[in-house]
Amino acid sequence: MKNNFIITAFVFLTGASFGQSQNYQTYTLFMYSFTKFVQWPPDVSNGDFEITVLGESPVFSELKTMAEKKKIGSRPIHVTKINSLSEFTKSHILFVSPDWQAKYPDVVAKVGDAPVLLVTELAPANNKGSINFVNNKEGRLAFELNTVDMAKHHLKASAELTRLAILN
Description:
- By secondary structure, the protein is an alpha/beta fold.
- Helices cover 35% and strands 24% of the residues.
- The chain has 6 helices and 10 strands, in the order H-H-E-E-H-E-E-E-H-E-E-E-H-E-H-E.
- The chain has helices spanning 2-15, 24-37, 59-69, 104-111, 147-152, 159-164, and strands at 38-39, 49-54, 71-72, 75-82, 93-96, 117-121, 131-135, 141-145, 156-157, 166-167.
- The strands form 2 sheets. Strands 3-4-2-5-6-7-8-10 form an 8-stranded mixed sheet. A two-stranded antiparallel ribbon has the order 1-9.
- The longest helix is centred in the first third of the chain and has 14 residues, at 2-15.
- The chain is globular, with a radius of gyration of 15 Å.
- Mean pLDDT is 86; it is low at 11-21.
């Protein structure tokens, strides 16, 4: 029943108008929902659930607000903002802001094959992470799922997430 609600929310949000400006509350809802449809390895499934924002993005404040109210199962959510890759240590989700797109290969090198879900915002074709927010043909918010990148990071996407995503 709970999964049906989340799937319905995904479908509704995917169909919501995206417009000229990004709705970072919607990004946050998507990222929270991704945690229910992505499986991390057992050795990183304890303690706080870590979300890191690399660079400047309004999504940081939205994620902080969400983290005060929500949990991932029984795990508290900890949201951190970093301005350089030298500050990155570990995370379950790394949101790469648009100001880091030109340095995306450096991000990939730093993360390596660690179990990190790389999420990008409107990334160019050659700088795509595990999940990428995009505009679909109708100009609505959607997300691409890169199953090859997810496998590289030892992550598994559920069939529901795969069904709702644009596969690349």
